[in-house]
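Lab channel / #folding
Pinned by the channel admin:
"Please post every new chain as: sequence first, then the structure tokens as a reply. Keep commentary short and put observations after the output so the thread stays searchable."

First post following the new format, from NK:
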Amino acid sequence: MAEIVLDGLPPFRPRLPWWGPDLQTIRSVIVKSSALDGHTGERLFFPLGDGDRLAAMLNRTTSAKKLPLIVLVHGLTGLEDSFYMCESAGHYLSRGFDVLRLNLRGAGRSRPYCRTQYHAGSSDDLARVFASLPPDLTANGVVAVGYSLGANLLLKYLGEQGDAAKVDAAAVVSAPLDLAATSRRLNTWRNVAYQRYLLRYMKAEAVAPGAELSAAERRAVLAARSVWEFDHVYSAPRAGFDGAADYYARSSSGQFLAGVTVPTLVIHALDDPWIPAAPYRAFDWQRHRNLHDVLTLRGGHVGFHGGEVAAWHDLAIARFFESLSRP
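Reply from TO:
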């Protein structure tokens, strides 16, 4: 498959020592980000209407450019300080964008203010955030970037809202278009280490101080042996779904793609060890003029570590948003 060039950006090429999909994927865990060193931030809160609040960190650029606010939405077990969130924020700030790093319900700095937990279908929380952004931050427009589970949430939100979406453009990286297929992939032998890692932090989030769980729920969470089982005994019933299969079927972002009406960049590596490529290959991207797919042969899961200072997906996304902001 030929790789797509975005506005003169060379195709992605991995660099040593981050060779192969697994090293591309785990770099975000084993390398500490310094992209926001020296940047100050402002703490913002977004009420959700049920007593819970989301915490977010706003970083303002020193540039005089009039560019949209970028809202970043993390993935599963992520938070505002995740490596990819900080690295992306640093690059976008250097390009002249203000950046808001959101903590989903029950994640990171949001945990003390939330009784419940985010899940792959909780796009209504995003809707509340986008609808309540302070006017001074939205004067030049709003764009959003989602990573992994956050990408699923963002695509679902955009497809549900259509023309009513409160963002002018969006970009997603490593979105699980089919949650059931992703869960099955994580449950394979080659991904044992990944599943153990994710499950460890999923459990820690779910039972952290502030979360409201019954004794039975706590036992079920701690006893879960796979992401599927965790979702079946906790995520799905807590959100009103009839088990994991129903949760995955109703929350997978692939079914919402056709409803997206704002320009949206979709970046995915076909060697992603977590997310199958089949749903990306099966979707007819050419029929949907608002969706701009960039499918690379390599890059891992939210990886794309090449020869540049910034991750390749950040270079592509910044160019995409800049091109839309030009008069």
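NK: The chain has twelve helices and eight strands.
TO: also worth noting, The longest strand covers residues 53-59.
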